[in-house]
Amino acid sequence: MSAFDSFLVVDWSGGNDKGPRPCADAIWACVARGGRSEEPLYLRNRQVAETWLADFFETERAAGRRVLAGLDFPFGYPTGFCRALTGTDNPLALWDWFETQIEDAPESNNRFDIAGRINREHGGRGPFWANALKRDIEGLPRNKQDYHNPFTDKRRAETKAPGAFTCWQMAGAGAVGSQVMMGLPVLARLRQRFGAAAWPFEPLDADIALVEVWPSLTLGKEPAGVIRDAWQVSETARALSLLTPDALSRMLSVDAPEEGWILGLGCEEELRAAASLPPVLTNSCFALPPGVHWTPVADALAHLRSNLAPVTARKRVAVASATGLVTAEPVEAQRSNPPLPNTAVDGYGFTGGREEGVHRLPLATQRAAAGDAPVDLPQGTAMRVLTGAALPAGVDTVVLQEDVTVTDGFISFRGPVRTGSNTRKAGEDVVAGDIAVPQGQRIGAPEAALLAATGVQHVTVHDQLRVAVLSTGAELVEAGDTAGDGQIFDANRPMLLELIRRMGHSPVDMGRVDDDRAALRARLDAAAEQADVILTSGGASAGDEDHVSALLEETGTMTMWRIAVKPGRPLALGLWDRAPVFGLPGNPVAALVCALVFARPAIAVLAGETWPEPQGFDVPAAFHKSKKEGRSEYLRARLRNGAAEVFPSEGSGRISGLAWADGLVELPMEAAEIAPGTSVRYIPFSSFGL
Ligand code: AMP
Ligand code: MG
């Protein structure tokens, strides 16, 4: 579980009230959870902001959510300043000092006077400078002419953050001085009222952490037409909420006791990478409607389809490296195919079709071959053209060379010949600007050809989905080892690993785990670390040794899916850390059927693919079966002489039947009397991507 639940980022302002209309350079705040930002909030002045912050903390505390609140101004000053003002090195004493000194109202405050007073007490020519008021303030220089700073200009953090401003400048573009002075009193009050922890000065054991952030550390330019501050708080909050708890705690463990630090400084790449991640799945993504006892297959699938979303990051890659990956955006054709009209055959080109009868045309001396730049056709002639050649200007019709006689510089052939015969129009396949490959498509051999032909150089794709495969059960022995009495070989893992590979994902072998809760917990932790999705088999029902469901139950995200399907006992679906877990039944037949029917399409969606619908065929049955009402059934089947045979035993432990079969016969919920010749739905394994 993430150490924090809600991530707030505030863009602070040291200026006066900005009025009722949302505008730049005001205070903006945004909350994000699990990679989803709320609408950024415009706060017209600090009084409004402080009230809003207090309300927000109250609400989050009442809801039991831990808050990381990031504010974009320095939480401390360069070394020595704190002692000079408060007699201690404790920056929080400085917060409280400013809290007692600063007077703040929407239209006026005493920040320049305070800056002047501090300067007068420390030499009179610094550390603060710049004054936005009309009146002069004794000791506060308007510019840097006579300026002298008794402290260092920047904190250590600022020297490492290109573009960061000094906290001594009180006015003008980029002035951070006013923001700190007008921000610390607010933080001091919030800290005291809520017992919030000020980072990095205090241990973060409170349920509210106040941290210093700086959106410009990682963000580039905002998209056109949006207010920069609003966009920055939203993007920063979103990125922070996507960091793994580990990464965040690494970023939070810094040693900057007096000056403070900028969160993420030195870890910019990691922050950027987090920002490219999709939102985390919500805890309720697997929650079925309450009260439903046996869920029909179609309802279970519809639920998965509408509640899941891609979980992998997107990246832009050269087309050559994109094969096997899934498009994260529709890909536009950069060039038409064909780019120019060309000839589909070897033959002779001329202008216009010809009527019935014999036609004779003088043959031009040039010829057009594939790759040649188009030439002009001399009026009234025909020209030799070869397959793939761009049509010479004037040619719109081609006659096949086999239908032509060439003598003494003339061709003759028999009509009729339609205008346009044997030619291909420019863009008749794809026009530049058309969508060549839609979003959610895995780039296979055909797509590779299309992208190449349409001049596409780069595509945005999803990272390959990593799927952890884990077997559970005290009875399991590694295939190939020696099995003792009472032990069986782990058959599910090789099966599921190969299934994942065939589906185009990256399998991560997490081995076997005993029926031991602590061991399974540790292995699930490792799996969530190494993979995006976890596929387990065994231990998924509600028995004493069903530890997968028991552990998922503890996370509060699990739903036991009682699907009206045979084979298949309950499926345990939940989230471990952030990774969706598909807890498949242990019986290999049930494990494969559930993996193909439920896990496969769900995992495809997690990988960014469009929901894959397996293609089935209605074929005559070659078997007898009396089927009861109330659940769907999947029988191991194969096609022979155009009819579907089924494996003689429906036993769910009969692994030989899986290898015997080429596909599944799918029988719907209704009762049925099936005899040879009855139409049944056969789905070949290839339709499931096997
Ligand atoms: P479970 O779901 O753990 O109660 O297991 C149901 C049945 O499937 C038991 O007979 C297990 O021995 C068997 N089983 C569980 N996991 C595997 C596996 N990985 N390979 C083969 N059989 C298994
Ligand atoms: Mg078991």
Q: Radius of gyration from the CA trace?
A: 35 Å
Bound molecule kinds, no repeats: adenosine monophosphate, magnesium ion
Strand segment tally: 37
Describe the global form: flat
Catalogue the unreliable spans.
none
The overall pLDDT, averaged over residues, is 94
What's the quaternary structure here? single chain
Content of β-strand: 15-25%
Terminal Cα separation, in Å? 35 Å
Task: Estimate the helix proportion, in percent.
Answer: 25-40%
Total domains: 6
Largest sheet: 7 strands, mixed
Query: Which structural class is indicated by helix and strand composition?
Result: alpha/beta
Counting DSSP H or I runs of 4 or more residues, the number of helices is 16
What's this, in brief?
By secondary structure, this protein is an alpha/beta fold.
Could you describe the 3D structure shown?
This protein has six domains: 1-106 and 157-277; 110-151, no CATH class; 298-306 and 464-606, 3-Layer(aba) Sandwich (Molybdenum Cofactor Biosythetic Enzyme, Chain A); 314-336 and 432-462, Molybdopterin biosynthesis moea protein, domain 2 (Alpha-Beta Complex), CATH 3.90.105.10; 342-424, Molybdopterin biosynthesis moeA protein, domain 3 (Beta Complex), CATH 2.170.190; 617-688, MoeA, C-terminal, domain IV (Beta-clip, Beta Barrel). It is 26% helix and 24% strand. The chain has 16 helices and 37 strands. The strands form ten sheets. Strands 1, 2, 3, 4, 5, 8 and 9 form a seven-stranded mixed sheet that branches. The chain has a six-stranded mixed sheet with strand order 16-13-15-14-18-17, with no helix packed on it. Helix 10 (297-307) runs parallel beside helix 15. The longest helix is centred in the C-terminal third of the chain and has 19 residues, at 588-606. The site of adenosine monophosphate has 17 residues, from helix 12.
